[in-house]
Amino acid sequence: MRQVFLDTETTGLYAHQGDRIIEIGCVELVNRKLTGNNLHFYVNPGRDSHEEALKVHGITSEFLQDKPPFAHIVGDLLAYLKDSEVIIHNAAFDVGFLNAELALVQQEPLRAHVLGIVDTLVMAKAMFPGKRNSLDALCDRLGVDNSGRTLHGALLDAELLADIYINLTRGQDALLMDVGEVTTEALNRVKTDLSELELPVVLANATEQKEHDEVLQQIDKSSGGKTLWREVA
Which of 4, 13, 187, 224 could hold 84 in an S-S bridge, CB 3.0 to 4.6 Å? Predict the structure, then answer.
Protein backbone atom coordinates (compact mmCIF):
# COMPACT_ATOMS: atom_id res chain seq x y z
CA MET A 1 0.00 0.00 0.00
CA ARG A 2 1.19 3.51 -0.85
CA GLN A 3 0.64 6.11 1.86
CA VAL A 4 1.57 9.79 1.81
CA PHE A 5 2.00 11.83 5.00
CA LEU A 6 1.11 15.45 4.30
CA ASP A 7 1.44 18.70 6.20
CA THR A 8 0.95 22.36 5.31
CA GLU A 9 1.92 25.73 6.69
CA THR A 10 -0.41 28.68 6.12
CA THR A 11 -0.68 32.45 6.44
CA GLY A 12 -3.28 32.05 9.19
CA LEU A 13 -6.02 29.82 10.55
CA TYR A 14 -9.01 30.51 8.32
CA ALA A 15 -9.11 29.47 4.67
CA HIS A 16 -12.64 30.83 4.29
CA GLN A 17 -11.35 34.28 5.30
CA GLY A 18 -8.66 34.34 2.63
CA ASP A 19 -5.70 32.73 4.39
CA ARG A 20 -3.52 30.71 2.00
CA ILE A 21 -1.05 27.82 1.95
CA ILE A 22 2.63 28.79 1.96
CA GLU A 23 4.31 25.37 2.33
CA ILE A 24 3.43 21.74 1.53
CA GLY A 25 5.47 18.74 2.65
CA CYS A 26 4.80 15.12 1.66
CA VAL A 27 6.55 11.91 2.75
CA GLU A 28 5.96 8.59 0.99
CA LEU A 29 5.56 5.24 2.75
CA VAL A 30 5.16 2.03 0.73
CA ASN A 31 4.34 -1.18 2.60
CA ARG A 32 5.27 0.58 5.87
CA LYS A 33 8.74 1.52 4.60
CA LEU A 34 9.94 5.06 3.92
CA THR A 35 11.02 5.39 0.27
CA GLY A 36 12.73 8.79 0.30
CA ASN A 37 10.43 9.84 -2.57
CA ASN A 38 9.25 12.98 -0.81
CA LEU A 39 7.71 16.16 -2.19
CA HIS A 40 8.17 19.70 -0.89
CA PHE A 41 6.98 23.11 -2.08
CA TYR A 42 7.14 26.65 -0.83
CA VAL A 43 4.20 28.60 -2.25
CA ASN A 44 3.76 32.32 -2.82
CA PRO A 45 0.33 33.09 -1.29
CA GLY A 46 0.06 36.63 -2.62
CA ARG A 47 -0.47 37.99 0.91
CA ASP A 48 1.37 38.37 4.20
CA SER A 49 1.15 35.90 7.08
CA HIS A 50 -0.59 36.93 10.27
CA GLU A 51 1.83 37.82 13.05
CA GLU A 52 0.85 34.82 15.18
CA ALA A 53 1.24 32.43 12.24
CA LEU A 54 4.65 33.91 11.45
CA LYS A 55 5.76 33.13 15.00
CA VAL A 56 4.82 29.49 14.42
CA HIS A 57 6.48 28.82 11.05
CA GLY A 58 8.93 31.72 10.61
CA ILE A 59 8.39 31.87 6.83
CA THR A 60 8.48 35.52 5.76
CA SER A 61 6.81 37.18 2.79
CA GLU A 62 10.27 38.23 1.58
CA PHE A 63 11.37 34.59 1.47
CA LEU A 64 8.23 33.59 -0.47
CA GLN A 65 8.41 36.46 -2.96
CA ASP A 66 10.11 34.42 -5.72
CA LYS A 67 8.28 31.14 -5.01
CA PRO A 68 5.61 29.80 -7.40
CA PRO A 69 1.89 30.30 -6.73
CA PHE A 70 -0.29 27.28 -5.97
CA ALA A 71 -1.60 27.24 -9.55
CA HIS A 72 1.91 26.46 -10.81
CA ILE A 73 2.52 23.48 -8.52
CA VAL A 74 -0.95 21.93 -8.33
CA GLY A 75 -0.31 19.56 -11.26
CA ASP A 76 2.80 18.08 -9.68
CA LEU A 77 1.06 17.82 -6.30
CA LEU A 78 -2.00 15.96 -7.61
CA ALA A 79 0.15 13.64 -9.73
CA TYR A 80 2.19 12.75 -6.64
CA LEU A 81 -0.89 12.17 -4.45
CA LYS A 82 -2.74 10.06 -7.03
CA ASP A 83 -3.47 6.44 -5.97
CA SER A 84 -2.34 7.03 -2.40
CA GLU A 85 -3.90 7.06 1.04
CA VAL A 86 -3.16 10.49 2.49
CA ILE A 87 -2.44 10.68 6.22
CA ILE A 88 -2.70 14.06 7.99
CA HIS A 89 -2.66 15.18 11.62
CA ASN A 90 -5.79 17.26 12.23
CA ALA A 91 -6.92 16.59 8.68
CA ALA A 92 -9.86 19.01 8.78
CA PHE A 93 -7.45 21.95 8.88
CA ASP A 94 -5.10 20.93 6.05
CA VAL A 95 -7.84 19.47 3.85
CA GLY A 96 -9.89 22.65 4.29
CA PHE A 97 -6.98 24.74 3.03
CA LEU A 98 -6.15 22.35 0.19
CA ASN A 99 -9.77 22.28 -0.95
CA ALA A 100 -9.89 26.09 -0.90
CA GLU A 101 -6.72 26.26 -3.02
CA LEU A 102 -8.03 23.58 -5.40
CA ALA A 103 -11.30 25.46 -5.84
CA LEU A 104 -9.39 28.60 -6.86
CA VAL A 105 -7.79 26.68 -9.75
CA GLN A 106 -11.03 24.90 -10.74
CA GLN A 107 -10.00 21.50 -9.39
CA GLU A 108 -12.16 19.01 -7.48
CA PRO A 109 -11.64 18.64 -3.70
CA LEU A 110 -8.72 16.56 -2.44
CA ARG A 111 -10.81 13.44 -1.74
CA ALA A 112 -11.57 13.14 -5.46
CA HIS A 113 -7.86 12.74 -6.24
CA VAL A 114 -6.78 10.18 -3.59
CA LEU A 115 -7.78 6.74 -2.34
CA GLY A 116 -8.67 8.00 1.13
CA ILE A 117 -7.77 10.37 3.95
CA VAL A 118 -6.73 9.27 7.46
CA ASP A 119 -6.63 11.66 10.43
CA THR A 120 -3.99 10.66 12.98
CA LEU A 121 -5.44 13.13 15.50
CA VAL A 122 -8.65 11.06 15.54
CA MET A 123 -6.56 7.89 15.93
CA ALA A 124 -4.54 9.39 18.79
CA LYS A 125 -7.63 10.63 20.64
CA ALA A 126 -9.10 7.13 20.49
CA MET A 127 -5.87 5.58 21.80
CA PHE A 128 -5.07 8.26 24.40
CA PRO A 129 -8.39 9.77 25.51
CA GLY A 130 -8.16 12.85 27.68
CA LYS A 131 -4.47 13.45 26.88
CA ARG A 132 -2.72 16.05 24.74
CA ASN A 133 -2.32 14.68 21.23
CA SER A 134 -0.37 17.36 19.39
CA LEU A 135 2.58 16.25 17.27
CA ASP A 136 5.02 17.25 20.01
CA ALA A 137 3.00 15.46 22.71
CA LEU A 138 2.83 12.29 20.61
CA CYS A 139 6.57 12.47 19.88
CA ASP A 140 7.25 12.57 23.63
CA ARG A 141 4.77 9.77 24.37
CA LEU A 142 5.96 7.46 21.58
CA GLY A 143 9.68 8.14 21.83
CA VAL A 144 9.98 9.95 18.46
CA ASP A 145 12.94 12.34 18.25
CA ASN A 146 11.66 15.86 17.51
CA SER A 147 14.72 17.71 18.77
CA GLY A 148 15.13 19.41 15.37
CA ARG A 149 11.66 20.98 15.53
CA THR A 150 12.21 24.51 16.81
CA LEU A 151 9.73 25.99 14.31
CA HIS A 152 6.94 24.26 12.43
CA GLY A 153 7.93 23.12 8.94
CA ALA A 154 5.73 21.13 6.59
CA LEU A 155 8.31 18.56 5.46
CA LEU A 156 9.77 18.01 8.93
CA ASP A 157 6.29 17.66 10.42
CA ALA A 158 5.32 15.16 7.69
CA GLU A 159 8.44 13.13 8.50
CA LEU A 160 7.61 13.18 12.22
CA LEU A 161 4.03 12.19 11.43
CA ALA A 162 5.22 9.15 9.47
CA ASP A 163 7.28 8.03 12.47
CA ILE A 164 4.35 8.65 14.82
CA TYR A 165 1.97 6.69 12.59
CA ILE A 166 4.30 3.69 12.47
CA ASN A 167 4.45 3.75 16.27
CA LEU A 168 0.68 4.19 16.63
CA THR A 169 0.09 1.17 14.41
CA ARG A 170 3.02 -0.93 15.68
CA GLY A 171 2.27 -4.62 15.33
CA GLN A 172 -0.94 -3.96 13.41
CA ASP A 173 0.11 -6.19 10.56
CA ALA A 174 3.41 -7.59 11.79
CA LEU A 175 1.98 -11.10 12.13
CA LEU A 176 0.34 -11.13 8.69
CA MET A 177 2.02 -13.07 5.90
CA ASP A 178 1.37 -12.86 2.17
CA VAL A 179 0.51 -16.46 1.41
CA GLY A 180 -1.36 -15.78 -1.80
CA GLU A 181 -4.82 -17.04 -2.62
CA VAL A 182 -5.93 -20.03 -0.56
CA THR A 183 -7.87 -22.42 -2.81
CA THR A 184 -10.42 -25.05 -1.88
CA GLU A 185 -8.04 -27.66 -3.26
CA ALA A 186 -5.33 -26.55 -0.85
CA LEU A 187 -7.71 -26.66 2.09
CA ASN A 188 -8.82 -30.19 1.21
CA ARG A 189 -5.34 -31.67 1.00
CA VAL A 190 -4.53 -34.57 3.31
CA LYS A 191 -3.06 -33.30 6.58
CA THR A 192 0.15 -34.77 7.94
CA ASP A 193 -0.02 -36.28 11.43
CA LEU A 194 2.69 -34.55 13.49
CA SER A 195 1.63 -35.93 16.88
CA GLU A 196 4.54 -38.39 17.02
CA LEU A 197 7.11 -35.90 15.81
CA GLU A 198 9.54 -34.65 18.48
CA LEU A 199 10.52 -31.11 17.72
CA PRO A 200 13.85 -29.73 18.97
CA VAL A 201 13.71 -26.71 21.30
CA VAL A 202 16.12 -23.92 20.33
CA LEU A 203 16.62 -21.35 23.10
CA ALA A 204 17.43 -17.71 22.42
CA ASN A 205 21.02 -16.69 23.04
CA ALA A 206 21.96 -13.69 25.18
CA THR A 207 22.02 -11.25 22.24
CA GLU A 208 18.64 -12.41 20.97
CA GLN A 209 17.14 -12.20 24.45
CA LYS A 210 18.43 -8.64 24.85
CA GLU A 211 16.93 -7.59 21.49
CA HIS A 212 13.65 -9.26 22.48
CA ASP A 213 13.57 -7.33 25.76
CA GLU A 214 14.24 -4.04 23.92
CA VAL A 215 11.31 -4.66 21.55
CA LEU A 216 9.04 -5.40 24.52
CA GLN A 217 10.12 -2.14 26.16
CA GLN A 218 9.33 -0.20 22.97
CA ILE A 219 5.89 -1.79 22.72
CA ASP A 220 5.24 -1.07 26.39
CA LYS A 221 6.29 2.55 25.93
CA SER A 222 4.07 2.92 22.85
CA SER A 223 1.08 1.62 24.80
CA GLY A 224 1.64 4.02 27.68
CA GLY A 225 2.47 1.20 30.08
CA LYS A 226 -0.75 -0.69 29.39
CA THR A 227 0.76 -3.93 28.10
CA LEU A 228 -0.63 -7.16 29.55
CA TRP A 229 2.69 -8.35 30.98
CA ARG A 230 3.05 -5.11 32.96
CA GLU A 231 -0.52 -5.45 34.33
CA VAL A 232 0.06 -9.11 35.27
CA ALA A 233 3.36 -8.25 36.95
Answer: 4
